[in-house]
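Annotated sample (chain length 433).
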Amino acid sequence: MATTTTSRILNRLIKCRNFRQFSKDVKYQKDPSKNLRLVAFGTCGICVGGISLWLRNKVDFGPALSSTVLALEPRQKQDDVYPVSDKEQRFQSFASRELDGQIYMTMQDFLESVTEENPRPRIGRFPLKKKDVDHMLDNTPKKRKATKDLFRSIWDKGVISYTEYLFLLCILTKPKAGYEIAFKMFDRDGNERIDRREFLLMEEIFRKKAEQDDEDEETVSLLTKYKGTPDSEIKVQETTLLRYFFGAKGKDTLDFNTFYTFMDNLQSEVLELEFYEFSKGMPRISEPEFAHVLLRYTHIDDDEREIFVKRVKERMPEEKGIDFQDFKDFLQFLNNLDDFEIVLKMYTFAERPITQEEFGRAVQVATGHKLHPHVVDTVFKIFDRDGDGKLSQQEFIGVMKNRVYRGFREYLRKPIGWAGFKACVKKELKHAR
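Output written by the structure step:
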């Protein structure tokens, strides 16, 4: 019986994705003696971990070990292997189309990549032909018909490149001021419009910001690549966004007001999907559900998140609810966290806890908008640990920055390889008790 139980535990541990990554790390070692030592060390570790689990608990861990702890690839070179960032991994996971060896997202893929934990099940990617893409582009909506559901209306009848994916991620996390400055930088004649070439340059700058490229990576910016090149010779695969902004011939121009409307509509579209996921089609979400939304994509684990939610339920037994407009106002305010943090320090020296009145005033100074008092009160109920009616700004800022970047931050990456496998064992042991 003991042998059977231990065997079942080891089989489940071996299926852990971190063990597969650890096995890949072994393969990349050039020194055979190192391979042997790694394999021996890994095997001993598995045996000790599995037997320890059985001896400590003496129960069948089948259900407890059924979940997989996913570990992101490190951003470092391993011999000939191309370094893959966490964003590129996510793009590859959700992208469902392929054209001439290049993978692309649809609008549906993009929305799912920023609102879902895992991509929908599929077998491979759908191969596109040039005529398929041409047909999609010919049916791209006109930008003058700006709508709040542009991506949902196009759905799977459009294509997004990897560079555009990173650019769109920036749009979801940056305030209006950042893009207004970028527009002015590339607006050579001061008419508050940019052409297709200038847009590609701006896209590249925000792509590099999103990727946070290391100095030793060999990247060539579009600014250098296309300097002095006629527009007709710039070879970039036409995508739905380029067609939407610059027309079939690529000769249209884009003014900032139109682009800002596009930004605002995209942010609203993503937030709307998140809101209605919790509201189940109703006009309001409860305060505990609001807490769930705020704590998504953060470093807070499931157990601690439940503590936050329970705190809200106890302190706000009578639910008033939060409507979409108030929900949107607060989530868009988070894109101005840096400015808010500066203003907050001016109000509250030495980073002391702040009151709801000080919080609301700081938000208005930083963004020019007022938050609904009930939303501010709910936020305080979530983050006020000791119930003194004040907020620890250090904790609030740290958690909300995690939320804004949707987990795409270096310190949020989970351990990989052997370290990740040990973390997997520890987590499963904790939940099995």
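Annotation: The first strand starts at residue 97 and ends at 99.
Annotation: The beta strands are 97-99, 102-104, 126-127, 193-194, 254-255, 284-285, 322-323.
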